[in-house]
Every structure is written in C-alpha cells, then in structure tokens.
Amino acid sequence: MFSMAWLDYVGIPYLALIAVAVLERGGGWESLSRKVLELGIDACILGLGVTGSLFAGDLIRSKLGQDAAALGVAAILIELIVLGLCLNMRTWRVWQERTRATVSIAFGVMVLIADSEIVWRLVA
Q1: Which of 14, 29, 30, 100 could disulfide-pair with 35, CB 3.0 to 4.6 Å?
Q2: What does the alpha-carbon distance between residue 120 and residue 113 come to, in Å, rounded to a whole number?
Q3: What is the pLDDT, as a whole number, of residue 27?
C-alpha cells in the first residue's frame, strides 16, 4: 500500500506537519477546535506545495506530456478554492467552532488524499 514514492512525496511532509502540531502543544489557541481548524488550513497549504512539486517533477511531466502543466494548474486551482473555504472558516460564525474545525480538517485530509492519488497513479 505505501510505496517509497508516496513516502518521499507525500508521507514525509505530512508527518512533519503532524510533528509540528504535536510540538506546538497549546500554541496559544483558545480551544482544541481552533487548533484543529488551523491544522486543516496548514494541511491545505502543505498540499499546495506538494502538488506543485509533483507536477514540476520530470517523472509526472514525462508520463503526462504536454498535459502536465494544465493538470497541475487545475489541481492547484481546486486546492486554492478549498484553502479559501478553510480560511473563511476562521471567522464564519454560522456554524459552531467544532463544526468548522471538522470541515477544515476534512478538507485538509481531502487534499492529502488527492496528492496521494496523484503519486499512486502517476509515480508509483
């Protein structure tokens, strides 16, 4: 299930994100929900970088040819929209903080899954 390519491209960056979240501990957040909300935002931001590095690499460009750039831009655009939604969750008071945190972390996990699929289908 886990290949070395997945670990190199996706696993290590996301494990580092989890390590930073653990090391940060309280981090000055007023609640656990707020920290989870911020972790979802951080996961989306990290996903942008992972996606960019994947599509900038020669391996994916050699497999997709001329379509690699367009697909990379489309993937990043979708991830930017998801990130924008997560960022707006910080101040959107229609939902309770716990619900906003759940949605934010779910979006972060969706970006992780998308990056993992790119690696499993095109690299591994």
Answers
A1: 29
A2: 10
A3: 67
